[in-house]
## 1
Amino acid sequence: MSKVIVSSLYNSDVFRMACRQFDKAADAINLPETIRDRTKYPRRCLAVALPIKREDGSITVFEGYRVQHNLSTGPSKGGIRFHQSVTIGEVAALAMWMSWKCSLVGLPYGGAKGGVICDPNQLSQSELEHLARRYMQEMVNFVGPHVDVPAPDVGTNEKIMGWMMDTYSNHVGHLSPAVVTGKPIAIGGSQGRREATGAGVAYLTRKYLEDMKIPLSKTTVAIQGFGNVGSEAALALASYGAKIIAISDYTGAYYNPKGIPLKKALSYVQYQRVLRDFDGGEPITNEELLELKCTVLVPAALERVITEKNAAQLKCRLLAEAANGPTTNAADRILEERGDIEVIPDVLCNAGGVIVSYFEWLQNLSNFYWDRSEVLEKLFAILDKAKDSVEAQKRKFKFSRRLAALTLGIQRVAEAKQSRGLFP
């Protein structure tokens, strides 16, 4: 019997939620006690202070984190989040989910995640660059193409990844594009990477709607979160023939039963940075958006937005989890009891981003680059294979789809740890 030592370091609601998901999955597959804690808890973490000189001459010290959950299956992989609500517990939970996601879709990665407590909208471009470069400077001994490969997440983008890659390259003395993914095309980014997560969400949504015998021409979609993932998912679903009836960001939500004018919305956000005062739909709250009557609900913002308070009020047929951890465990139980909503769990639904990040990493290491059609073809083939494995696991053990996906991911990481043994 292994002795369980639980660190209080990652203590947070979202980390406890991820741990409860793990425990349920580990029980379902009778994971041996001797391997449970090694598979469950993060391998290591780093907290850093990031002093930045502001444009007014003042100094602000930001706090940043990087958590590497699993290094047994390859270099760790995961985004860097710039957001005012970042905590080390949230980062640890996201790193844990990345481990299961990479394992589920068959990538040779462990999970990692990073974050800086800041509001990027309150920083000038110059301050944002200083913060990004300072973060990478603090991480140079902790990351690398064969150690840990960061990527964009909430509040970061390809420009920030370019600054980070440049900082690391200057430190090691040569160009090292494979240290991060999600970079601009000009410096080693991959075709198709920007739209990869949203395109993957839309592709899986289409496949599950086909399984449910629901035609896309009669599909209505509400999307909470109109950042990179939400907007790309909206464009892809609209191209398939679905009608996007609601979109939102943290400033508010907009509903239009005739269909949101997406080009107008994208242009508006490009210049205004937020959706506030957008006139392409009726203003509603983010909470009201989640409870709209629609075929597909896509939470594409932050975690824990579908809770026991609103799960019973959802009026969608399909819940496509584009965000990480958007549904709490209590809400999950309510949805299972209802039985009228199909769920595409986050570890499957939003895996397109890390899959194409893997393609970008491969292209950087080999200096051989693919065109967009080849990238998307390979992406959809991997998603099809992962979907089939989840559905087979679901049927075999009578699991929920989330439990099927988690058990597959966790089992593969546990097997890798057992195969490698325990270093004395």
## 2
Amino acid sequence: MQSQHSAAAANSALRKQLDKRLSDNSLRSLRISSSDGIDLCSNDYLGFARSGELAALIESQSVSDEHRLNGSTGSRLLTGNSVLAEDLEKFISNYHKAESGLIFNSGYDANVGLFSCIARRNDTILYDELSHASIIDGIRLSYSNSFKFRHNDTEHLEELLRKAVGTVYVAVESVYSMDGDLAPLKEIVELCKKYNAALIVDEAHATGVFGKEGEGRVVELGIEKDVFARMYTFGKAIGCHGAIVLGSDVLKQYLVNFSRPFIYSTALPPQSLLAVKCAYEFLKKNSCRIDELKNNIHFFNEQVKKIKKVKLIDSSSAIQCVVINGNEQVKRAAETIQASGYNVKAILSPTVAGGSERLRICLHSFNSKEEITGLLRIIESLIPSPAKINR
């Protein structure tokens, strides 16, 4: 009886929190993703996740006994390591012009695994206030001092750098996942040099999108030697699953010894590793898709200027955001757009700050000009009152 009573009390406490979310229109729920409608919401920027050509390439490579395993059988430190995993780490490191790399099971695992262990009790991590939840969660698990700086504000970052103690790390995203804007990486690099800080760049939404062959913004800007660590994901433009942390050989060995999400997780199965290898090879041969995506981004930016009453967040990436204040209002707008055959998602508070709720539009290499203009016509019809254009 006591255990039943305790469970009932616990469920009651949880229900109160869910009811609170329900009352302010921020309750999340799982829905089956539909292939119906025009995709303007997924992270499949280059269409790799849906590519039959890439699927055939992966299938053709799945021939060895190692690749036939259904699972990796254990963590990398026990039975889950393989020639395939180590060769893939070397291949991706070379692709992104890094000395070494360590594969993690997801981008979330990679960031938590990195940030939770690199900084010690008397060290400092400074991070952009719009950093991904995985970065923030990793920092919370560390014993370091940590302070956030205003988004893309290098003056505020410098104020904090002057006061920082111990080994100092600065964490940013090259492309921010909810706003789609870019970090001023070159300016941040110079600050890190000035104050002897180690820069960490999350390239999740730049992987496969920026750079001549999708190497990311760090390589595109030629600053790879100035960055201590980088994180690349395989679940967005690469169209697969998993992630990798790139840096020095010393960093890799440190993570193998101290990163708990790596140490205590069963490794990715061979099929996943093989898929990533094939996707990178496919990317190298199909860099034209990057150009197609860039053309669509440029076209969107030119067309949206014609809509005088839309409030936008300045972005030159595949992520474009139309701000519609209020959870209820932006949810209704998204439902109207979806009913018209366009898959666009509403981003609600508390995922973003209250008052900055938005329609998050993800452009792809495979979207047509007609699809983009059709979406913009619907958005224009949904916004009755003028709003300042933030461009």
